[in-house]
Amino acid sequence: MWKMSKKAMLVLLSSLMLLITACGSGSGETIKADGQEDSGELKKVVLRLKWIHQAQFAGFYTAVEKGYYKDAGLDVEIRPGGSDFPSVQMVASGSEEFGVTGADQIIIAREKGVPVKAVSTIYRKTPFVMFALKESGISTMEDLVGQKVGIKLGGNEELTFRAMEKSAGIETSQIEEMPIKYDLSPLLTGQVKAWPGYVINEVLAVQEQGKEVNIIDPNDYGINFYADTLFTTESVIEKDPELVKSFVQASMKGWDYALKNPEEAAEFGLKYGDKLDLEHEVAMMKASIPLLEPEKLPLGSTEEEAWGTLQKSLVELGFVKKEQDLKSLFTNEYLE
């Protein structure tokens, strides 16, 4: 009978133990790169953005890439939004748990009986501006009187523009409006004299073509509506408040890291959008930093007064007919 030395036996037993550990015990456990066990029981969650993948959403990409969601026990899928996939409708249907939309859309949805609720405000200062080519000489709302101006109808952009008009004492009939989409050609060719857009995107796109611009800032007219807002439904909150808390806090951890590391965060976004340009995405991320107002802690928190001002403007401008209970619109509970 073949005999094995004690030393050889120990080596064989050690090898078997390593093999068993690496393969798992059949319970679904896997081994992470750092040697720690991962139960594999991450809770699947979907986040629906308000628009296509870009650095505007870099904090969420960062939370995935840095493992913050995974550390919170979440497997998060980030899906692009847009007109074909409106985030409020997608989340309200119950097929997705979280979404990003303009704060105004939360109020409009609540009036229609859709029980969505904001759990964090990402852009606490609006990125929306009106802008014109510097060569036009247009630099104020008053300069738009008698001019042909591009208008995006039906959303936050129109709401903010109408509020700026009202603040400047301008009647809608005093400006020749041209409904526009996303192609900047009408501005660049002089077909329209001013354009509605985000200072973190369209303004940068024009400047990248070597054009200087004049910005008409809503804040100069006393207008600052919350923009990108993270939301969920009341049913998700009631069913799994711990899920909401984990997701919100991991998301804000991602945003905090992105603000401190804008180049790295912008590069994360390239994994989600295959046609993104790194230089533009880095510029977008850096332009976003002051709009998140990181000096106001906790990051992502919202104020009742700001929601009240936004809702009052929506009513006065005819976007909604009646006001909703402010406390039904948002909560800071999951940031703490």
Residue stretches low in confidence (pLDDT < 50, at least 5 long) are: 1-39
Termini separation: 69 Å
The percent of residues in helical segments reads: 25-40%
| Shape designation | globular
For the secondary structure, the number of strands is 12
State which percent range the strand residues make up: 15-25%
Query: From the alpha-carbon coordinates, what is the Rg to the nearest angstrom?
Result: 25 Å
Strand order of the largest sheet: 4-3-5-12-6
Order of helices and strands: HEEEHHEHEHEEEHEHEHEEHHHHH
The largest β sheet comes out as:
5 strands, mixed
Mean pLDDT: 88
Q: Class by helix and strand content?
A: alpha/beta
Number of helices: 13
Q: Explain this structure to me?
A:
This protein has helices spanning 6-23, 58-65, 68-71, 87-92, 103-111, 156-168, 185-188, 202-207, 234-239, 241-260, 262-269, 278-288, 304-316, and strands at residues 30-31, 37-38, 43-48, 74-79, 98-102, 116-121, 128-133, 148-151, 176-179, 195-198, 213-216, 228-233. It is α/β, with parallel strands linked by helices. It has a five-stranded mixed sheet with strand order 4-3-5-12-6. A three-stranded antiparallel sheet has the order 10-7-11. A hairpin with a 5-residue loop joins strand 1 and strand 2 (37-38). The chain is globular.
